[in-house]
Each structure stands twice: as C-alpha cells, then as structure tokens.
Specification:
Layout: H1 5-15, E1 19-24, H2 33-38, H3 46-50, H4 52-56, E2 67-74, E3 90-91, H5 100-119, E4 126-129, H6 137-143, E5 148-149, E6 155-156, E7 164-171, H7 199-203, H8 221-227, H9 237-240, E8 243-245, H10 249-252, H11 272-275, H12 279-283, H13 287-294, H14 303-318, H15 324-333, H16 337-349, H17 353-357, H18 366-374
Parallel strand pairs: 3-8
Antiparallel strand pairs: 1-2, 2-7, 4-7, 5-6
Helix pairs in contact: 1-5, 14-16, 15-16
The structure holds cobalamin and iron/sulfur cluster (SF4) (2 copies).
Amino acid sequence: MPADREEFRRRLGEIGFDAVRFAAVEPPPAPPLRAWLDAGHHADMAWMARTADKRLDPQQVLPGASSVVMLGVSYWSENLRSGAKVGRPVWARYALHEDYHDTIRPALEESGKLLETMFGAVPEDYRWYVDTGPVLERSWAVRAGLGFTGKNAMLVSRRHGNWLLLSAILTRVAFEPDPPVVEGRPADKVGLLCGKCTRCLDACPTDAFPAPGTLDARRCVSYQTIENKGVIPRDLRPGIGARIFGCDVCLEVCPWNRFAQDGRRMLLSARHDLAGLTLPEILRLTPETFAATFRRTPVKRLKLGGLLRNACVAAGNCGERSLLPDLLPLAASHPLPLVRAHAVWAVRRLGGEAALAEARRDETDPQVLAEYEAE
Ligand code: B12
Ligand code: SF4
Ligand code: SF4
C-alpha cells in the first residue's frame, strides 16, 4: 500500500480539486441501477442501459482496478444567479460556466501523470472520467465518504452542499480507502443526514421523485430541457417555468447548502454574460449568434433548435405578451417543426390566438405532425 496517499491528496488539491477521497473497488457498491432501468426511469437515455454491466462492475472498465479516487469540484458562487428579473430565463448553475467536462479534463490528465510519477503507474494502470464514462460516480462518491445520498438523489457534501461536480479515477494503484461520511452507519442509506426534511421532494416542480432518492428522468426538467431531443410533454411544460437549461430546484432548497462556501473555482470558468441574456435575445438567435454565444459552454450540445424549443416553453410560462412579436415568426415559419410546435404552444398560452391565425402553419398541421414522426 503506497505510504504517500496524503501527499497525493494534497497534490490533487493543488491541481484544483476541492474534495479528494479514496474508495476500494471491492466489494463494489450495489446501487439500484437495474431496478431504475427496469422501471424506465432513464427515459430514452439508452446509453445508460447499454453500459449498465460496466457501470456495475469496474473490472469491466479497468481489469485489475483496486481503487477509485473520487474528486469533487465545487461550483458554488454567491454571485452567479440567473432568472432574477422577469423575462430573464433560469439556467442551471453549472451551465453558467464553460463546459466543465472540458475544463476539468486537463486536471485529470495531470492527475494521471501524478499517479505515474508518484506511484510508478503506467498509463494502462488508470482511467479517468468526468460524467460521461461508464462509472456510477455518485455511488463511488458515497462509498469514498465524499458525502451522502440526499433524498434528491444528489451526492450531498457536508462541506460543499449540493454543489460538487464529480470525477473519478479508476486505478490499479491500491490506496487505503477513506471512511464513509458517518462511521458505523450504512453509507448507502438514502437520506442518511436528511432527518425528517423533505424540502427537495416537495419543491420539485414536476413531481419527478417516485420515492426518496429515486428520480424518474422522464419527469425531470433537467432531462427534458437537456437530454430530450424531441417534444417536451405538454403536461410538464407549465412546471418548467422559466427554466431554459437544466434545473437546480431540488439542489437550491437543501439546508446542507448553508455550509457551502464560494468554491476556489480553479477548474471552472464562469460565463456571467449568459445569466444576463433575455428571452427576446434568445428567441432571436441565429445559427451564427448561437454558435458565437454558446461556444465552449454545455449549451452548445443542445443546438439552436433545442434552445429555441426551451425558450418557447419559458416564454409561454412567463405571462409576458410582449414576447408575442418574437414568438410569432418562430410559430409561423421556423424551419424546424420542433421549434414551430413549441412556439405555437407558447403563443396560445400567451393568448395570441388571433395573431396565430395569421401564422402560416400550426402544430396540428398534418404536414408538421408527419415531420415529427419522420424525426
Ligand atoms: C443520467 C444522469 C442524469 C439524469 C438522471 C439523474 C439521476 N438521478 O439518475 C438527468 C438528466 C435527469 C440528470 C440530472 C441532473 N444531473 Co446528472 N448525471 C447523470 C449521470 C450521467 C448518471 C447517473 C446515474 O447513474 N443514474 C442512475 C441512478 C440509479 O444512479 P445514481 O443517481 O448515480 O446513484 C444513486 C442512487 O443509486 C442512490 N441509491 C443508492 N442506494 C439506493 C437505495 C435505494 C433504495 C434508493 C431509492 C436509492 C439508492 O444513491 C446513489 C448515489 O447517490 C451522472 C454521471 C455519472 N457518470 O454517474 C450525472 C450526475 C449524477 N449529474 C449531476 C448533476 C449536477 C445533475 C443536475 C444537478 C444537472 C442540472 N442542474 O440540471 C441534475 C440533478 C437531478 C437529480 N436530482 O439527480 C452530477 C451530480 C453531482 C452530485 N453532487 O450529485 C453527476 C454526478 C455528473 C458529474 N460528473 O458531476 N442527470
Ligand atoms: S432537477 Fe428539478 S425537475 Fe429534476 S428532480 Fe430536481 S427539482 Fe425535480
Ligand atoms: S432538501 Fe432535505 S431531504 Fe432533500 S437532500 Fe437536502 S436535507 Fe435531504
């Protein structure tokens, strides 16, 4: 067992990680991933089902893996808020930064090199991931004692609240594991430190928690506004409110956040300009202005059509008839049926039926419906 685990932890902190904890690979945690998939809670994220075996067995990801180094980057900042004014949409906090996958990656590369220089590892002895790999990051984080599973399904840290982004390094280097968050209590208990609190469950605008700690992605605003590439179910649209990309409601209400201090933010790059964008500015984006505005941010993955779809829902929910002049052209003639349909919905919701009658197409147009089916 290498003696300098603490020196490694310190060096990872210097690289910019705000939390560094170690877990042993064996025995792996037993998260209810299969039951979650069987219940269809993953919506159309088929990649979750395809990679389930690997997610449940790190040996299939890295044969001979002994340890998981779990890393957290705090992205809490008192000064970074969106949606404070009417007509300004609400963004998930992480989206008000350059894409964290890209900004954390170099730090993970550097961490891998440290494994080589400090512990004699070769590149085949480790693999690192931030979000997109076949690793159950929250389960490993719980195992490593980085925090506990909140009733909101989040990894809640005593020091950083709900505001840690997670990365994992699977390695054949054996590290002594860290203890769980409360020694002597089962680490994987949902709501270990929640007590009687149910704020997150009660606050969810779309009722996405069938049980504490279990999230049905089909009902989650985060899924609907980021992962879903098609039509947002009508019954969920009102609950989405002004949220245009992701959702932090069940995170924001958590009392454990009171311990979160502004993160060091060494591995993040804030984009304050995005928080100030208004709905009219977004509804008027062109492919060129979209690309220029959202370059290097997680929003770029959504593409212009997806963002306009979300902006239409937010516009329809905000009650501002002054948005009708920006919505009508989208409803009438936007080339994407997805955008047209959500714009029509928003126009109707804002009471713009008369103006809509002027619009060239509407979402009940058989041609538009046929285009949906063809997608
Ligand atoms: C798919 C996915 C989503 C999906 C589904 C979310 C979900 N709850 O599973 C959608 C698109 C909805 C989503 C939304 C968000 N996500 Co997401 N997502 C993921 C991803 C890629 C996989 C998650 C997964 O495996 N889900 C399957 C379930 C079964 O596993 P799990 O939630 O990870 O594990 C928990 C449960 O098994 C539970 N559990 C364990 N034992 C038991 C026993 C019982 C009885 C029960 C009920 C539960 C239970 O505890 C485990 C640990 O917390 C991870 C990255 C990764 N590779 O892990 C990021 C990740 C979980 N997401 C993250 C974030 C930040 C978000 C959002 C906040 C984004 C936003 N602002 O819009 C929201 C939060 C929604 C929420 N409350 O969970 C972070 C979470 C960081 C943290 N501190 O927890 C991660 C880790 C990405 C990262 N690298 O930082 N996400
Ligand atoms: S992210 Fe929003 S919609 Fe999803 S479970 Fe949390 S509060 Fe509900
Ligand atoms: S809001 Fe309350 S119930 Fe939800 S995770 Fe935080 S402490 Fe637990």
